[in-house]
Amino acid sequence: MTSTSAIDLTALLAPGLPPPAVRWTGFAKYNFVGGHNDPSFVPVDSLIEASTTVLRREGQTLATYGLNSGPLGYRPLRDFLAAKLKGHAGISCSSDDILITSGSLQAMDLVNGVFLARGDTVLIEQETYGGALTRLARLGVNAVGIPLDQEGLRMDALESALSEHKRRGVRPKFIYTIPTVQNPTGTIMGAERRAQLLRLSRAHGVPIFEDECYSDLIWSGERPPALYAMAQGQGVVHIGSFSKSVAPALRVGYIVAGWDILSRILALKTDAGSGALEQMVLAEFCRAHFAAHVPTLARGLRAKLETLMEALREQFGTAAEFDDPKGGIFLWVKLPDTVDTLKLAQAALAAGVALNPGPEWSTDKAYSRCRLRLCYANLEPAAIREGVATLAEVCRREFGVPSRIANVAHPQGR
């Protein structure tokens, strides 16, 4: 006789899984978290046109995995990237040095997959992308944070860490860095410091993992060459994304590496290829519109950043400290040492404001305790002002900071 009792599936789950996800109930009213972009700058009409054009011309290639372009990804998109990376970042590579991935997160997982084993050590910026930190933790990798300054990774601290690890007989697997529009600080590493970084990398035999997901969004439009370019591809693996320059939901990223490494990465990418439609549409769109689209997007984001910084000055006064980032979609803010941003985030969320507390973006939890990251790209200017005003009210109630709300009209009354 068959039992009718239900099987407890949770009792059969594999050990070592991350905590369960929280059920999504919608975005907060004032959503300053994540890497969302400005919906008004998603080039919808141009994407529709590109979709129609490329599907009419090449739609039958959807019958084959890889669109007749092979496992590295849709060749017209790789051709565009090779030209774009040459003009934008100084990278000389061929289309066959580029692997298209399902967003830069898959690119990161693949790079980690070929280099890292449990117990390994990597050197990483002290304040960095939270997703990189969580991935390293799940892999059982020792992530050693290197302090930053207003030009990014500090070379004196990096040299000291490399020398100390060498003395102990530990060779870090790589140095992970976001040198061009750093996340969360928005800094850009200068050319001379990049040269210093490459010299240290070579002297200690430790490669560099270069993450350039935000490098298209630079206010001035000017940047130093990529580390990959300066190293002529030797000892550097480079990743990037279209998430911030076109649309995050498209989930298209890429890896640039020599074939000795790319061939090993490709062997791990067993998903039968990243989404074909996204690649086809992006290639068609980018060929005609990318060069004009990105500066327009950057101007719109800069205006929103100005709104956020003005609102913070109005509502927090000198209690909120921040540098003016050189690009991107984030502002890294320091509040007085008495503020615990993990607790602030919980109280703010109850009031409709979502923010990223600093400890989630740092290897030094004590240093980042009073810091937070705000994404300003997705909200409209009025909502940015309202959200900051609400955040100030919550912070004052919970921590007495600011000591008084600035004497300005409440944004909701404007």
The class by helix and strand makeup works out as alpha/beta
CATH architectural grouping of the largest domain: 3-Layer(aba) Sandwich
Give the overall shape: globular
**Cα distance spanning the termini:** 71 Å
What is the helix tally? 12
Q: Helix share of residues? A: 40-55%
Instruction: Assign the CATH topology of the largest domain.
Output: Aspartate Aminotransferase, domain 2
Question: What integer is the average pLDDT?
Answer: 94
Biggest beta sheet attributes: 7 strands, mixed
CATH class of the largest domain equals Alpha Beta
Q: How is the largest sheet built, in terms of strand order?
A: 2-10-9-8-7-3-4
- When the domains are counted, the total is 2
Any key phrases for this structure?
single chain; 414 residues; alpha/beta; Aspartate Aminotransferase, domain 1; Aspartate Aminotransferase, domain 2; 2 domains; seven-stranded mixed beta sheet; three-stranded antiparallel beta sheet; 12% strand; globular; disordered C terminus
Plain-language structure description:
Helix 7 links the parallel strand 8 and strand 9. This protein folds into 2 domains: 25-42 and 292-413, Aspartate Aminotransferase, domain 1, CATH 3.90.1150; 44-289, Aspartate Aminotransferase, domain 2. It starts with 29 loop residues before the first strand and ends in a 15-residue tail after the last helix. The strands form 4 sheets. The chain has a 7-stranded mixed beta sheet with strand order 2-10-9-8-7-3-4, sandwiched between helices. It has a 3-stranded antiparallel beta sheet with strand order 11-14-13. The chain has 12 helices and 14 strands. With 414 residues, the protein is an alpha/beta fold. Helix 9 crosses helix 12 (381-399). It is 41% helix and 12% strand.
